[in-house]
Amino acid sequence: MSLDSRGAVAQAARRRTFAVISHPDAGKSTLTEALALHAHAITRAGAVHGKTGRRRVASDWMEMEKVRGISVTAAALQFAHRGCVLNLLDAPGHADFSEDTYRVLAAVDCAVMLIDAAKGLEEQTRKLFDVCRHCGIPVITFVNKWDRPGREALQLDAIEREFRLSPTPVTWPVGDAGDLRGLIDVRTPEQMLRYTPALGGAQEAVEEAISADRAAAEEGPMWDQAVEELELLRAADAMHDQEAFLAGRTTPVFFGAAISNIGVRLLLDAVVDHAPSPGPRELVGGGTRPVDAPFAGLVFKVQANMAPSHRDRIAFIRVCSGAFERGMTVMRAATGTPFATKYAHSLFGQDRSTVDVAYPGDVVGLVNAHALRVGDTLYAGQAAVFPPMPSFAPEHFAVAGPVDVSRSKQFRRSIAQLDEEGVVQVLVSELRGEQAPVLAAVGRHQADTLHKRNHRRHPDSDRP
Ligand code: G4P
What we know:
Blueprint: H1 3-14, E1 15-22, H2 28-38, H3 61-68, E2 76-81, E3 84-89, H4 99-105, E4 110-116, H5 123-135, E5 139-144, H6 157-163, E6 166-169, E7 171-174, E8 182-185, E9 191-196, E10 206-211, H7 212-219, H8 221-235, H9 242-246, E11 250-255, H10 264-274, E12 281-282, E13 288-289, E14 296-304, E15 313-321, E16 324-325, E17 329-332, E18 337-340, E19 344-348, E20 351-354, E21 357-358, E22 363-367, E23 377-379, E24 396-399, H11 408-421, E25 425-427, E26 438-441, H12 444-457
Parallel strand pairs: 1-3, 1-4, 4-5, 5-11, 6-11
Antiparallel strand pairs: 2-3, 7-8, 9-10, 12-13, 14-15, 14-23, 15-22, 16-21, 17-18, 17-23, 19-20, 19-22, 24-26, 25-26
Helix pairs in contact: 2-10, 7-8
Guanosine-5',3'-tetraphosphate binds at residues 22, 24-30, 48-49, 93, 144-145, 147-148, 257-259.
């Protein structure tokens, strides 16, 4: 084994690459910030809603879109926790399903399913969970907003019923939703964790472990009820089992309130302790690419020209094997042609910092990567082709045509670009020809994105 391969194996073992999936408003942005805060990647939380005492921080993808003009799907956050490197990819949680989200899930090894305690499982959560199952991604569940009146903790059976996924709580709330007294970590049931949130949730909540006796004396029936419920769960064998989790049969469950940073540290620890590190990846034609093979990566997102001020075209690549080094020349599997990776960037929120080396699980953004397409494999050394990303049946269609026929060349170029970026599926029929392609979108949001893009380019036109 070469030094490089050994390096890739050791680095891959330290990586956890995951996404948070949720219905809009469940608290994904808030949780993202809280995770970054607990990993000390940021020093204050509060970007999302500009609350008093909170500042805008790097993790807010929506803000990033506004500030830099780059789409909400652009960012991957990287931070360190307990000796591991965590890559948190943004799975856009639009009300409407879009192919972007699917592609992100093809690039992660684990998902955190965020549920609003009051609303339970919602439409978008269901769809995203289906994609996780399809991709074989294990799912950790975080029941959020436990500081507000919600459902009973024992109502977790909805997950079992709807997803055929057995919930195995790792933390358990003391007190009902809206009256949270603390959490029990089921691995240390002889104590209760009590939280004192910082004002506005800008800092980590102070966490104090108090003994069972003290908890019983101070919380009375609330403590007794939590202990009783935990016994029921134990009797039902609803305890975390790593093998069953990785096989997609169970989901470890955590309770908390992202807004006040309650339960967030335990979730972050769970990502380190339970989420799988990058492993061998299946190849077209059988076999797998081990992480210690030379570099191979998957293009899961291409982003172009979102900012009127600069004509960027960034291809986001998930490193699957080996070490990616800036400047290396790799092969593009689709065409068998070399591709020079002179401009490699990693993206952390609004800042772009140049990447020199990246390992399995990491995300690299290649700027001005005009040749690359979503689903492409890049590799060095022995050839590799990762399976194409399955596409979804489109539900929204529109026929496009140039408003000004003298600009039909530009029109064709724009359509080709949308196709390459995967903004929509471009279908060309023999009957209509290239001048009148059918643009097909999986979700309404995708169609809206297309509409906005069109307006940005041709403000004088209301047609693509
Ligand atoms: P999203 O990215 O999933 O769409 O959710 P986001 O984080 O934007 O949060 C949606 C709303 O839920 C926000 O309130 C946010 O403050 C709130 N929220 C997030 N986590 C928690 C939590 O643990 N407890 C409670 N009580 N609320 C939470 P908003 O009304 O939309 O905005 P704002 O008035 O708070 O600024």
